[in-house]
Design a protein that fits this description.
The protein is mostly helical. The protein has helices spanning 2-28, 36-146, 148-166, 204-212, 216-241, 258-267, 269-277, 285-306, 308-362, 369-385; strands at 172-174, 186-189, 195-200, 251-254, 280-283. The termini are far apart.
Length: 388
């Protein structure tokens, strides 16, 4: 826009210069050479020059006005641009802070979740280790139970643990030798000095065969095997360990498995009844614990009966101590009573001394001289009589 105005101004200036030159030539020309047409032309050129000058001035004013407006528009545009930059900066700062807070929150949540995941993975690893250890134990237990001798040692160890945990030393003995040179797994000495025999048996193979049976014939064969094995165990215990006059009339056959014991009682009641008739009681770990507790109470009652005389003697001595304690308490009570009386007499004397001190301080002797002499003389007379 400004370049166009400059070109227009240049053209006007050129035209004005040409008109001025022509007018000067006409004016300096001799009068005889003048022509009215030239005069008219000069007048028109002068008018054109004046108009061009006015148009130039108008264009210069408009140019200055346009420049002012352009400057104002530039300043306004710069202000709006600055305001836009400020608003954009504030918006960017707000978005950046929100985005930072959101990223920080998400990062913290991610860290917490990863930490929780690590903890759970640690728990899972620990549980997996426990499962692996348990699997190894189960495998070793299966290997133990597969061998008859190892299975017998396992049942005996379980029985010994139960007995040792609940009976005092001296009340039982393992591998005790009887009069017929047999050695049961354990005997418990009851108050009548006759031992109660406990022997551990574990008919696992027959029970496992029964559980693994799939046909009726297999079940019948397994059941018959269980009856045979249990009857043999019961017969061995009754024939070897029940000695009249030496052992108790009853023996315990320990089965170190609650499930095997439950299978025997559920499906082989006839075998259990035969064992009862043979004076052999089949017990599981829980029933053996109960029997041991009953024996422990019986032994405790027997010891109390044996120590009844000593208990009466100790109770008599305790009564004597109580009587002496009562006498000493009564003496102490008398001492306290005498002390209270002495304290009362002391308080009475202190009150009298206080009254006499107040009289002396106030010089109140009128009519009391004789009484004062008697009061002073009386203690002196008592001291003389006492030889002090």
């Amino acid at each position: 826009m400004s370049e166009t105005l400059v070109l227009v101004l240049i053209v006007l200036v050129v035209l004005l210069a040409a008109g001025v030159a022509t007018l000067a030539w006409l004016l300096v020309r001799p009068p005889q050479a003048r022509d009215p047409a030239f005069d008219e032309l000069a007048r028109l050129q002068a008018e054109s020059a004046a108009r061009l000058q006015a148009m130039g001035e108008a264009l210069a004013g408009r140019q200055s006005e346009t420049a002012g407006r352009l400057q104002a528009m530039g300043e306004a545009l710069a202000g709006r641009q600055a305001e836009l930059a400020r608003v954009l900066s504030e918006r960017l700062d707000s978005v950046s802070s929100r985005l930072g807070a959101s990223l920080e929150t998400n990062t913290q949540q991610t860290v917490d979740r990863l930490q929780t995941l690590h903890e759970r993975l640690a728990v899972i690893d620990h549980a997996q280790k426990n499962l692996a250890e348990l699997s190894s134990h189960v495998t070793s237990l299966r290997d133990v139970l597969a061998n008859k001798q190892a299975r017998g040692a396992f049942g005996q160890a379980a029985m010994e643990a139960i007995v040792q945990d609940r009976l005092p030393k001296g009340a039982y003995e393992f591998q005790y030798t009887l009069a017929n040179n047999t050695r049961p797994d354990c005997v418990v000495f009851l108050p009548d000095k006759r031992p109660l025999v406990i022997d551990a048996k574990f008919p696992l193979e027959a029970v496992t065969a029964l559980r693994a049976a799939t046909t009726d014939d297999e079940r019948k064969l397994a059941a018959q095997r269980i009856r045979t094995d249990v009857a043999k165990h019961v017969g061995d215990i009754a024939g070897k360990y029940l000695i009249p006059g030496e052992t108790q009339d009853l023996a315990l056959m320990f089965v170190p498995s609650e499930s095997v014991y439950a299978d025997l009682h559920d499906g082989f009641d006839d075998v259990v009844q035969k064992a009862y008739r043979a004076r052999v009681v089949i017990v599981s770990p829980s029933l053996l614990m109960l029997a041991i507790q009953v024996m422990q109470q019986i032994l405790k009652d027997a010891r109390m009966r044996e120590a009844a005389d000593q208990i009466r003697t100790e109770v008599g001595r305790m009564l004597e101590d109580v009587v002496r304690l009562r006498e000493r308490v009564l003496k102490l009570q008398q001492h306290f009573g005498q002390t209270n009386e002495d304290l009362r007499q002391i308080l009475i004397s202190s009150e009298k001394v206080e009254k006499r001190a107040s009289r002396i301080e106030e010089l109140e002797f009128d009519g009391e001289d004789a009484a004062g002499v008697n009061v002073i003389a009386a203690p002196m007379a008592r001291r003389l009589e006492a030889g002090e």
